[in-house]
Amino acid sequence: MALLDKDTIRRAQDVDIVNFCAQNGYPLERVSGRYYRGVEHDSLVVDRSKNTYEWYSTGQYGNAINFVQTFMGRDFRQAVQDLISGSYAATDVKGPTAEPQPFRYAILHDQTTDAVERYLCEVRGIDRRIVHTLIQKNMLKQDVRQNAVFVWGLAGQRVGAELQGTRKFDDGRFGHRTTFKQICANSEPNYGFNLSIGSPKRLYVFEAPIDMLSYWSLHKDLNNCRLVSMDGLKPITVEKMIKNTGRLYGSYPTDVHLGVDNDRAGHEFLDRLSKKIMSTPDGERITFHSLIPFDKHLPKANLPFYQEAAKRHGVDWQWIAAIHKAETNLSPTNELANGFNYEAFFGRDLPKNQAPEAIDLERSCERCAQHLEGYTVDGQTNITDALINTKLPFEDKRGFENKVKSVYNWYLAGDFQTDDHPSGLPGKDWNDVLLLQNHGNAHEQEYPYKRERPVTVHKTAGRMRA
């Protein structure tokens, strides 16, 4: 195989990362004339003036070739070939960067919305009445390439938009990408697709519009609330939407429900927001609530390990399971999944770029049970003392303790679901929940999300506002 010459490599490195992403459906959000942020990974920042990226949550950084390797799953040679084979613009790293411009809605609409309706209703399972309502209110469009256009509204004005593809990519190069996604240029920063039902007193926040509409499809009796998509995991968007709702409606939401994905990033996001002390201008405390789907799933295969270790050391198995859940979200690997950086028995705060490793669950449960035994008297465990971690700030230690106690109470009351998924969840987002219900693959006794009152969407859709 011939070696790549220096000129070929240089041409690949010079391809504008932002332009490459735009043409390949990898969503970036412009935050200034110079910087762009990843939509799916909000700690990913592209510096367009240098044509480099840095993924802060992992410590990875590099040039255009490294970007394609990391986010498109290509080896070095494939990445170079991808970059030089397309009609991508080269960047001028010495040139001035343009100042942000006001949003201008310049999307060319298709004459029908058939592709969007088919994709959202038949593929993603969204309630057809919700889709029709959004179309009627000009909040959902179809462009000439048959992408779904989610229009961002603010006080009756269009301030941004995002595109969601309705067809799979057909070039076969980037296997982990399935549909096109893009936030339109100059869309309102730290904002997103949103709608209001009645007079909002509560905020429901999701990572993407489809998650948001899936939740509404499952909870058609929602009222007096605002539904918001962050397009990723963005605390600043949550804070902005709280303030924005108060200014628009004259009343600040004091309850914020976070329907983020059931994965490491989602749990870290929830934990970090739960540590924030926020209040309305009137001094009312703003409380964050978890709406993470499948959060009460407990793998049946794990139960014997918890129970046998607990029996040997005279402690409640629910404490062991709760600590496992709070540390790593019941992961079979040692990667932490909490926003408090708490590590003890099941996970480690891994150095950047170190891959997670499988844990020995039996050994980890034994270590945990043995530790808890030292803080247990007459069957009662002093979990506050048992979880002391002198390395952490007080608020992190207390936050982790509260999380463990909450999960313990679920398990003690039998408020959890088991199934035969050996190591993973039945799904991780609200669209997965919706599809399980629509396809009849979820059992009602295992997934209480099915138990919704038969209220039609007409009651709420008619009072929906952007």
TrEMBL record:
Identify the residues that the record assigns to the DUF3991 domain, covering every copy.
Answer: 118-195
In terms of superkingdom, the source organism counts as Bacteria
Provide the protein name. DUF3991 domain-containing protein
Source species: Sporolactobacillus shoreicorticis
